[in-house]
Amino acid sequence: MTRTVIRGGLLVTAAEETHADVLIEDGRIAALAAHGSGFAQTWTADRTFDATGKYVIPGGVDAHTHMELPFGGTFASDTFETGTRAAAWGGTTTIVDFAVQTKGHSLREGLDAWYAKADANCAIDYGFHMILSDVHEGTLKEMDLLVAEGVTSFKLFMAYPGVFYSDDGQILRAMQRSSANGGLIMMHAENGIAIDVLVEQALEEGRTDPRYHGEVRKVLLEAEATHRAIQLARVAGAPLYVVHVSAEEAVAELAHARDRGLNVFGETCPQYLFLSTDNLAEPDFEGAKYVCSTPLRPREHQAALWRGLRTNDLQVVSTDHCPFCFTGQKELGRGDFSKIPNGLPGVENRMDLLHQAVVDGHISRRRWIEIACAAPARMFGLYPRKGTIAPGADADVVIYDPHTEQVVSAETHHMNVDYSAYEGKRVTGRVETVLSRGEPVITAGEFTGRAGHGLYVPRGTCQYLI
Fold first, then answer.
1. Which of 153, 243, 342, 387 lies most in the core, judged by the most C-beta atoms within 10 Å?
2. DSSP character string of 33-93
3. Quick one: DSSP state of residue 295?
4. Neighbours of 198 (CB within 10 A)
5. Is the dihedral of CA 393, 399, 403, 407 positive or negative?
6. Which of 335, 325, 419, 417 lies closest to 74, judged by CA?
7. Would the pTM count as exceeding 0.85?
8. Using CA atoms, how far apart are residues 391 and 59, in angstroms rounded to an integer?
9. 1: pLDDT confidence band, cut at 50, 70 and 90?
10. Which contiguous run of DSSP H or E holds residue 24?
């Protein structure tokens, strides 16, 4: 039996802050005890970490990543090996990635393809959501089988006609099925049919630069789609989780639904909290680095997102990590913004950026852990195995130095992408040591993990229902 003790730190979970030592046995949290207590002093260990002056927090749960995703004639540049290693560097110990159903093929084929991509390659634990791109009677029946297998959430798109798009009838059918089988529908809420009209008009008028990506994907078309998704979920009697919420008007739709007592939830991402259309407008095609969907919004929307996180109208911050290199990939859209691959790198930056939000007074320390660890674990059926530090939980633990300053840069990050969306940003706080199921994967600022350590984690159903 391997025993590890972490002594001297401030233990921060979503529920409490306490000065406690942590005992780990065989990959799980065995006990917590107050510093210096007689109980803690009796602990012997194979490994001891001194966390004096540091935080001891649960490993992050990033519930929205896209490793190796095919998109726009290319692939996301992070593999499951490079992406999960970068996640570990940033204090994230579990990801939930998206397996993709290809039109004309079964959910099973798509899921098996993603199992194969990830198997024996991940440095941290992982699960899968399922993207539905071809809703019919056969795939509806498959949803029941996947829920039983631990794939309990299904993403649908109101955007990307001809690729992932589902119409309202297909969405309603999928929601009705999830209402019966306990699955959770995740929605990319943008009116893709209307957006395509605006894209065509912009290109015809010679508006081809990256900033027009944001201008055609109107705030009102995100808000309208969010409203429509909520009403369809009400008709189906199903819970709904809206991904990558970026706009004040969309937050208002979620808040209104939640005020009515509906099981409607929202996620936002660091890019919407820290970046804006100013980045999309950077000259010399540099704005292409910031093309993602939903798009970056004018800076004034950030206040509504922070407020939504404080009031719990937004419950989760995930990254939507989907990196494409500027050279050779983002450049596919020179002269036509609609051909720029959509996605940003960020799986390594999320925990640090959200700690900066604590430093800046946007959120509390416990809320940091709630939105980055506990809430995503509860939302997607992983709690209390993941997302907290408590006896019986997996020993996914981060020793976090809240005082060290760092500068975010592509020169020092570990994601397999040639730029940083947050290049030059100064943040206070840094991951020092990361344990995944009790095994050190980052030790005093060095990678000590390995590909294949990470295990597939079947998930239960949503634990966040009202």
1. 387
2. EETT-HHHHT---SEEEE-TTSEEEEPEEEEEE-TT-EETTEE-S--HHHHHHHHHHTTEE
3. P
4. 16
5. negative
6. 325
7. yes
8. 15
9. confident
10. strand 17-25
